[in-house]
Amino acid sequence: EIHIKEPIEKEVNPRLLPGELLLCEASTVYKYMQEDGSNRGTYGKLVCTNFKISFLDDDSASDDNEPQFKNKIVGENDITLQCVDQIYGVYDEKKKLLTGQLRKYPEKLIIYCKDLRVFNFCLRYTKEEEVKRIVSGIVHHSQTPKLLKRLFLFSYASAAPNNTDGRNQTVMFETLEDWRDELERTKGNVKYKAVTTNEGYRVSEKLPLYFVVPICISEESILKYEGRGIPIWCWSCHNGAALLKMSAFPKEQDDSTSQMQKAFLDGIYKTISKPPYELLKMDDLSSSLPSLQDIQTAYTRFKQLFLIDNSTDFWATDVKWFSLLESTNWLEIIRRVLKKAIEVAECLEIQHTNVLLIEESATDLCCVISSLVQVMMDSYSRTKSGFQSLIQKEWVTGGHGFLDRCNHLHKSEKEEAPVFLLLLNCVWQLVQQYPPAFEFTETYLTVLSDSLYVPIFSTFFFNSQHQRDTNKSGESFKTQSGPFRFLTVWDWSVQFDLKAQAFLNNPLYAEKPKPDKSQRKTARFKHQRQLSLPLTQAKPSTKRGFFREETDHLIKNILGKRIGKFINSSDEPPNSLREFYDSWHSKPVDYHGLLLPRIDGPEIKVWAQRYLRWIPEAQLHGGGTIATAAKILDLMEEVQNLQVKMDEEHSQAVSGDVHSVPMLRNSARLSSLFPFALLQRQSVKPALPTSTWKDLEDEDDLVKRDDEFVDLSGDML
């Protein structure tokens, strides 16, 4: 019944990182390969460390057949403890969720990962004592609540040598100078200033050390309510309009407190809203976008479509794939978020109006919308270093609670929500709609989403800059004196060698031409017009509300009665927004100007590379976008070689980028989900979703539905 590979005789030991300790292990564990209906697999050793769960077979010991795209930290059979989503045990063919103390130990172990991998281990041939140790060890270290300082992040930082790549161009926004440079880059320094009021975190532990506010805001105002009710600058448009965010006051307050806060807000608004010269539009995201709970519920349903145990389950869901996908509501949430970003862009670009995003903490949906608007309106944010600097500015120093939202410590599932993943999904829509506009690829976004669960980088493992700074001291460890030196995820050399890093860069990126010095003045003016492309005639309007006719039912109050004008988020775009949207899409795209995503109907797609990469049945061998890319790269290489021959004296300059293009030979052998899917991966695709363990009655039923089946690999991609 079981096609077995003989147990390995030679001892295979795990490759441990600095600070990594082996906690428990089990020999003669059988790992299933769920690529077809059989129970094929391989024997090996299952180990658990303070960093990861790892399966070691005889292939682990050899470096033969290494993939082109290999992660140096997390291997193909490695699962970091933070990447474990749920663990199930199989008892007499029945699945049971494993948490806490176990009375009985399972004969099979199924591990579902947050990067959507599924591992199936058979423990029937393993010694009973080893089964108890490995199962209880894995469940305890990956599923139970833990203290922050118990994260592997601290063990690694105290033991690893500090030899990071110093060529990282990402702006970290940890100094006052970084903020001043950003103000100067966006020409926002005329109306806004970087402040040092929060040095020593005397205003709030949730705010960064340095941030930017309107020039007219006083230090006393910032200190009064711990930063609440203060408009904080995100970005300035080329026309002077700015994107701001604000942390709202709690809605349930007693009358006297509410009156004081209302008077305070009145004063703040008067200083930054001076019609007709300075207009201000306010948008309470908590009322115009789905709640974090709705986002979490939708994503939980959505990911279930891709956590496939076996081939049978896959083909069973194939019949109703589109209805299941729609019922999750995940793509609809992405559409609504993109639509909101378009609304804000229209306000800044066409109406020349400042937009103030309001949220309870201004660290969740505010981060999503402000980041998306900058990616759409600022071509610098579409470069690799620019996008990384944007994440640092809006998310890392901006105070997004990665620790709580990713539930890294397993403290509370109520706080969990895939907010950062939502942003990456939205950015992916833009990347796949306008590939030449981005310096990075979808592979870059995929490995960035995977890096959320790799606890050797500090980037995604703190709730705030204050939390990171206060936990930097190494007093609880017997280490050298001085603070921990955490790694940043932006140093890609830690995870990938140069050959693999090439897959993160887009060889077809339409790089911005550098203007000649003699034409610099005209070029600058031209660039400003390009930012506005496509132009629509701006009609002077007496209406100061945004979509006045639709805002009556949206009048909500952060304090009870104060704010009555919000950017609308109805199901259908209002006329002015629709006009702006249609006008832009009717004209040629300027890849260095404004980008508006297409959001109608089927334009919002599933991020296939991230969600389908571990499902063999969903792969097209020799097909998909990678096949097209391979042909284009071959052509580029040929052109570059011809250019070298034609102009040998400039060969060095011309061929300098040749090695940055990953060579994809034999594109017919590549999977459509390359570089994550293996080359020549075998998968038996049945004409009907039958299997050896389905009873005949089910088979007969499925035969009758023969005509309903479609080829999933074509439909899903």
Automatic annotation (TrEMBL):
Cell compartments where the protein resides: Cytoplasm, Myofibril, Sarcomere; Sarcoplasmic reticulum
Residue intervals of the Myotubularin phosphatase domain: 173-611
UniProt-listed PROSITE patterns: PPASE_MYOTUBULARIN
A matching Pfam family: Myotub-related
Entry's Gene Ontology BP terms: phosphatidylinositol dephosphorylation
GO cellular component: membrane; sarcomere; sarcoplasmic reticulum
Entry protein name: Myotubularin-related protein 12
Source species: Eulacestoma nigropectus (wattled ploughbill)
Lineage summary: Eukaryota, Metazoa, Chordata, Craniata, Vertebrata
